[in-house]
Fold each of these.
Amino acid sequence: MKQGTKAERAGTLRVKRGLAEMLKGGVIMDVVNADQATIAEESGAVAVMALERVPADIRAHGGVARMADPTKVEEIMEAVSIPVMAKARIGHFVEAQVLQSLGVDYIDESEVLTPADSHHHIDKWAFTTPFVCGARNLGEALRRIAEGAAMIRTKGEPGTGNVVEAVTHMRRMNREIAQAAAAGDDQMMTLARDMGAPVELLREVAGAGGLPVVNFAAGGIATPSDAAMMMQLGCDGIFVGSGIFKSGDPEVRARAIVEATTFYRDPQIVAKVSRNLGEAMVGIEIDDIPAGQRMQERGW
Amino acid sequence: MVGVLALQGDFREHARMVAASGGTPREVRTPADLEDIDALIIPGGESTTIGRLASLYGMVEPLRSRISDGLPTLGTCAGMIFLASEVTEGDQPLLGALDMVVERNAFGRQNESFECDLAVEGWEDAFPAVFIRAPVVDRTAPDINVLAAHDGRPVLVRKDHVMACAFHPELTGDDRVHRMLIDLVA
């Protein structure tokens, strides 16, 4: 046996982005307690997102939504062996410091919570714990990556059970990546200005034909077909927020969404797992959400 | 043709690595996909998720029998766990292709994940090893060859045509681990 390993380097870009790579093709589920976390893990979730209330309840109850109680986050970390993510408010770097000190595996700087800073996001380079952030388009995704995000997700419209906004955001992202890839060097600065994207990252996207980090779908996914559709549109994996634990039979639905995410190109399997799921969460029409209450519009 | 188990995880990175090393990758999701492959990679991902899906879709027995019939196989991270005969904690489907006990998340959580230059038996240059919530081999049968260890704990092992590592060669540009597998394909 050969020995003599050199120093360990923690919190590098590769280590942060690498965990997201391992979650690909999987489903990350919102949970509010240890019991839900256990159900999620047993149903095949690749990670859980710890939060105080799922987006549908945040929407229903109103008020200021904040980071979850550390006791609750720790209970969830104790209950499962899969990675645990937790949400901090946009710009609330102290909530993020607290979550890092608890040892969560990923921090979601999330528009689902009430923003704490109306101009700035968290400087994510200052942390060892990796961050995931929401985006509606390429410019927003690249601004977050420039701030240190190691994973991106579509914003969609959380807590609605309505997939339309997630679809819009994923298609826009795909369209803008294709646009960047087709643009010449002489167009890059203007494109970067128009998209609000850092030009160096835009060049990287143009060269690679894709984002430099993993991109999941989130915000309104409620059924196995929703998950498979997002996968066919090219996302790397699925976040389900309210869709599971606000449905009639969370365990059955969780399993079905996991299987549909793996076999997303096989409609027979998606059909099979879609049978007898019980009631889906009640959906909300996007146009019925009053102006100023769309979570996707939070973030700068 | 090198099959990459594509139930969940970073199977696309492995496929890219196989293609870059001159092999032909193929995604494997069902028993039928196993039929005409000459080697197999079990990727990184969540071992509980991969194990559950493999068991649900009837993959465990076909995988066991192909591997015990001599199919060259490489498992990385979650793949190492899946190839083991036992885990120190919890209960999840395992292939038992390597007679060893594996400890999951052995270095801790994500904040303890790291990169390092790893010395490997028989290789002149260190390997750029990326450990992400990585497992280690807790103990092995005596006939399993330990090719590399970190802090005295085995992280790259091999027995005949089956090899496993706790780190992620697919996240680097270094194809030496993949070459060990591809070189076994006649």
Amino acid sequence: MAAIKWPAAPTTYEDDVVLAFTIAAVLWSLIGMAAGVYAAAELVWPALNLDFAPLTFGRLRTVHTNAVLFGFAVSALMGTSFYTVQRTCHIRIFAPNLAWTVFFAWQLIVIAGAVSLFMGANAGKEYAELEWPIDIAITVVWVIYGVVFFGTIAIRRIEQIYISNWFFGAFILVVAMLHIVNSLAIPVSAFKSYSLYAGAQDAIVQWWYGHNAVGFLLTGGFLGMMYYFLPKQSERPIWSYRLSVLSFWAFAYSYIWAGPHHLHFSAIPEWVQTLAMVMSLILLAPSWATMINGIMTVSTARQKLREDPGLKLIVLSLAFYGLAMFEGPMMAIRSVNIISHFTEWTIGHVHSGALGWNALITFGCFYFMVPRLVGQPLWSVRLANIHFWLALAGVMLYVLSMWGAGITQGVLWLSLDELGQVRYGFNEILAALQPYYLLRLLGGSAFFVGAILMSINLFMTISGQRTVTVAPPTTSMRSPAPAAGTP
Amino acid sequence: MVLIRPQASFVALSEAHFSALHVFVRLALWLGMMPPLCAYVGMTKHGWQLGTVEPLMLPKVTIGVICALYFFALLFGFISAAIIGRWMAGTYGATRDLGAHFALLVVVGAPLVLGSLMHLYPDVFLNLLVLVPCLIWSMFLLYRGLPIVLQTTPEQGMLMASSMIGYLFVAFVSLLGISVCLWVYGIGPRLGV
Amino acid sequence: MNLMDWHRRIERHTGLLVFGIIAVTSVGGLVQIVPSLFQTSLSTPVAGLEPYPPLALEGRDIYIRESCSVCHSQQVRPLLAEVMRYGATSKAGEFVYDRPFLWGSKRTGPDLHRIGGKYSDAWHRLHFMDPRAVVPSSIMPAYRWLAERDADTGGSIQNRMRALQLLGHPYTDRDIYFAPQRLAGKSELDALIAYLQMLGVSRPEGG
């Protein structure tokens, strides 16, 4: 063993790149939400399309999903994973220059993606719309990201790899696998390619990708975030270490199967649909186990909880996580899917997850992390509390209006009259949805305003400050982990 | 009173002692009857209105059954939330007195009951428009009132309130799922499935 | 050795953790996704199905460019009311020349899989120029600029058809040679309408 050369004791953590990712994520959240709010307004007032191609609903919605998914969510995950992996491995990040490369390259990718989608370069697959040159760039940057992340784990000074890093690791590995397989295509020109798969087979591959992008990015990645920041904020170890081990592997195993529940009653083989439904129901167990583990971790903190507005957002986000994780499997049941599929209910479900869970937990972590990065207290706790209520009201308005709209659509589309004929015309039903679209716009706007308040709050906190230099604890080389489940 | 000055009435609530049975029989039952009654009157008079399409008129018996089910669903939600709350109380250092849990839920539910007057005109959108702000007001009351009425620290109360919201979400979505399944299997509106 | 002891090894070894994650997450894909890629019933065209002619192919690529599929599905489910509203249930064999598939996940507007032949070209033209002139409650954007743009401005139609030929679409060299002529003088709107009028027309027998 004597031959092994351990890296020199690190001086400080590389936190500048974390701060850069945080700022980028906040900006992308504003851009993405602005696009979303505008698209929502177009559904109420179609004249807002302005006869201007890039602003039409189809292109704008695609820009919206890409900006929030790849701009906001991925930047937030890259930033928090770098923050977490350094602190749980007690070492400065492996190759900080590469980390900065990831930062700049990723931002360029998202910008290029948004511009190309506005211009109409679109591969036509939901959440994988970017064309092949950008797809290749994503692959390259993702590999570098993986090298930095796993490199840091490999040179860690703590024996055990902390739970958060399993989730971040699964996020990095699985997203790479999904992205590469789903994006395979024959290029025609710089802005056009044709998928290697066709028709029903393409559908199966695409929803294997689409569902697991949600699974491993929006769920797995963010659970990594939760597993670090929740115990940190409540100053408690994870409630049950055993549960986190079991739920991690069960989650990783069962999520992958659930994709084809997006294709119920379609032309794909029946057994694939049924299997997806069963696995979706099984998935409820590990995802709820994780939630219980999180909520119990804060709940057992008998001593004073830190007066931190971030914690409130994280705890609320867990309630929405529980909702989305229950609703999803329920909508995967074929009898429910008959009504819910193709309706606004799906949109409501996605947003209870994306706004209620992903955005709120990220905001909560930022409220915790940013003051620590710059060594300043949060600029305004009061503003953060207003943000909490705006966010909660916004999501509730959004989700409830989409439930209303979705059930209206689902039931009226299929209603028959006394003679056994279709009862309502499609356009008659569409007209009935207008008020819900207005209500949704209101909810989305409230959430957006909350996010603006947060960015003001965070930028005022950061303003004029540099990141403070934090040195890792001076532990001996490869010291054993503190106690299982303590970040 | 509780709608105007929540803080003071929460303190008053926490000081008074209620027997669970008393709160249940004198308040919860009656308040719980309000929404189904309004719905019954509204649905028999105006029909079930889903936006611009023609209103759905149902036979009185069917409406009666739906409203009875509605009443029992509310009752179930009320009692189960109190029991869940009491079950969680140990974890969050709150009181396990069922009367206090009932009292809290009555207060928290008050805006929703008031909003349910809108059922008198059962237009789905108008109801949503009225009930969503009521719901947000209820959530506000829950976060504010829970630590006071159930006598725990504000931080623990915040956690417990979030857990309660989590439970209520799931209960509501289950109700949604069950109704949808019933419709698909032929109970309720006539669907071509 | 109990489960947690066994896990102590994984959580102390980067390579084992990486291997474990890849192994566990691959199973679902291998068992569920890969077999369907070799299932010929999913890749055999229904009788009478032709690959998209140049004008319709151009129209389909415009449909993709404008993300029409975020509001319009192309998948009629086997439900009574749905078949009455839209037409025969969609079959896998009708989509074998669809790269990518455009089934969509949302019906803000109606399903389009059986739209072909339902309305006249003139109706579609009017509808794209001003949707609310034809359907008062419509919330679809107007697509006036499509009428002003020539089809295939990039001149890539032959390359596109060759790429599809490579992937097994039965275009003949003659089809490809004459493709630019088929697009000459046509606008993007003409192409898009040509695509819509082809949708769901080659029905499986008995459909």
Amino acid sequence: MANPMSIIGKNAVAIACDLRLGLQALTVSNDFPKIFQYGPDVFLGLTGLATDVQTVSDLFRYKVNLYRLREERDISPQTMANLVSTSLYEKRFGPFFVNPVVAGINRTTGEPFICGFDSIGCIDFAKDFIVSGTSADQLFGTCEALWQPDLEAEDLFETISQALLSAVDRDALAGWGAHVYIVEKDKVTKRLLKGRQD
Amino acid sequence: MAFIHPSSLLPSSNPSYSFREGIKSSAPGIQEHRFSPYADNGGSTLGIAGKDFTIIAGDTRQSSGYSINTRYAPKVFRIGGDDDSGTGAKIILAVTGFAADGNALKERLDSMVKMYKYQHGKDISVKACAQRLATILYSKRFFPYYTQAILGGIDEEGVGALYSYDYVGSYEREQCRAVGAAASLIMPFLDNQVNLKNQYVPGSGVGHDLKAKAAEPLEQSHVEQLVRDAFSGAVERHIEVGDGLQMLIATKDGIREIYTPLKRD
Amino acid sequence: MFIARSEYDRGINTFSPEGRLFQVEYSLEAIKHGSTAIGVRYPGAQLLLTLSILTRLSLKQVATSEGVILGVEKRVQSTLLETSSVEKILEIDSHIGCAMSGLQADARSMIEHARVESQSHAFHYNEQLRVESCTQAICDLALRFGEGADGEESIMSRPFGVALLIAGVDEDGPQLYHAEPSGTFYRYDAKAIGSGSEGAQAELQNEYHKSLTLAEAETLVLKTLKQVMEEKLDAKNVQLASTTPGKGFRIYSDEEMAEVVGRLPSN
């Protein structure tokens, strides 16, 4: 199943995913978002086994809700990243088959933050972009070539959209449109990219 | 009770030269010798055809597994030149995959192209050379050259021509193509920047009503920059790509070569 | 020459002391007994340029209004003979054809070789074989007779007894070649072979000019054939074929033959 990705801009982050859900060559759904929101500006993208995607997203809903009740504040993307990491490592020898991506803006510092994980919680802190899923190779190529530092929100949207659409068009297991979130301080914009429907 | 020493799980310390299969021991006292005629030497090539030029580029790293055989082994060649340095050649061939097969293929096509000139009293066209390469590859249908080839030059109308092949000679003329280890990284970038895929005319509609931007012939300097960007991206994210970038540019005046270093890590 | 023969006639690849290969020379004699065949290349250039203004042809049509006409006589021995079964002009590929004089059966294997060579070239190079390369390919066969050298298998016991006029069109325009059993070939503007070749060649020499049109070339070929033929020329005992950039090689149908023969001045 396909790909979330996230990239960093100037005081903003973007996170996007395609909408296909499939069992190998069989497309089961063409409206299956893989990005979940856990705070005003904290997002988690999940790829991998569909049942694990749903279970893990629900598990973090449960954990983040408890965190908010106990701490009486929203979770920061950094805290979210550590929560994801430790939760995945708990299943070190029977892992969830997911490769998560976290993106958000830290309320206190105002800094954008992204990171990615393997299925047992090893964190990849990146300063530029994180990709995951079946089109990871293609996404590495497009991001590496299209991304540049200090992108403003609109340019960030264009960059992540072009990178994602071009990448999934070269992957038979991904595509069917995409969701893009542009996360700025105090503002989240969600857009639907129609993309190729084949 | 059998005890497996951890060192037996590590890769063999026996020399295995360029072949992926070394000497295997299947049971105590019995040694299985196996020879594999193929190896993967990594690396990547790409080609872009313009209005009156064609650029074919490749990195110069040659590796087997995690080790680097050499930092300068060209994968892009002049075909049909007058001497060993390829002076006077008009056609470019790039090969990735098994380097030995790539070299053999290059030598064979080169001699065919020279023979063609003797037999027919004219330089071979890119179109004819493309078909010849396909028949050479197909002639080894059941013991193929383990190489993915791209062929470029200027066609009979003076337009940049680029042909890409599979291992056994199925081929197609295209505007651009990335091949080899980092093909999956580079190809979507070329789709986006050369054929302008997923680029639309702003304000021309919403959703699927948007009007797609028409791909137009690119300037040579622009294409050169795209090639550099494609490879610097591939070098960052693929361990088999690096060391040097060799760019051969075919125009009506012949073939020009540009070499630039790439990261060696 | 006929006095000096003897032991040098036996070894088919043996030079005589004068440096001659008798069997090859005799094969040239065999052609002199063959029916007459004529080829004429018509450039059609300058004259047609003025013509184009009159007929409002486009310039492109003018530029391609050149070609080669081949013509052969069919010796109709019997009134019971079906003349359409006398095939002395054959297609090699869509852009090359040839006329023959001499032993027809020998021409079969040469033309078969040329056809294979032409198809093979198209397969390997995705382009049509050039006329000169095709002629060369035919002539490569010519000396593969006799015992055969080491490694190369000989396929024939004697030289071919047939000469060919090869007409074709490629990127250099329409061309006419003459190929002999000796393996040599030359390009001609107009050439006659066979029993009437001497008279016919002299006639061509007189009548040929650089601004022949298609119709003039057709007439020239038929007029020349008529002069050297023993029988009275009609639409049944001659055959024409044309090679043009537009239509490639084409053998004339019965209707076309009747039309062209009908144009001849009767005398």
Amino acid sequence: HDGLAPGCHLHPFNVTIRSDRRGTCKGTHQVHACVGYCESSAFPSRYSVLVASNFTHNITSASRCCTISKDPPPPPPPPPPPPLCPDMWGHLCPPQVKIEILTAKACRCDMCRKSRY
Amino acid sequence: LHSFRGCAVREFSFVAFKPGCKGLHITTEACWGRCHTWEKPVPEAPFIHRHHRVCTYSRTRHATARLPGCRPDVSPLYHYPVALLCHCAVCSTQDTECETF
């Protein structure tokens, strides 16, 4: 990402989808991530912050991070696959499974999420 | 600075104040920059992977200022950190007030 200008930008990448943990069947699909450089700073905390933190937080960090502009809701769980169907020779064949994958449509410098730092 | 990427020591001015004293204008060294951060969709829960890092102090020294006009029962000493080195890292709630907006 060395060529990236400051800011938060769409970035294509390939996702590999596997039918099972062993990867019996797999395929790749291109989606977009958000990647970039957003401003942040750290400085001495105000006295009110020092008091509120019992003098443990002597540094204050003010930050923004590169985020997908709006978190789409997680896709609904896929419906249970139909039972295996016999083909014309009587062999049992797996059905086609449709998988939904999210992709970023827009990016912006916004709140850093502490839970997944 | 418009194209700067990374995290560096930068001059910072603030007014040190505490109840019972007058404020004192202090110029010190703090941290500023742009850290590499990203979010990418993944097929499994939680459906988004994040890499969020912030520009913060890596090495510090402690400094003490003497505030003017303090009441007799209030210590005039005001302690604050001075940045010697800065880096992009997870914001640690152990010693940092982590604000994001």
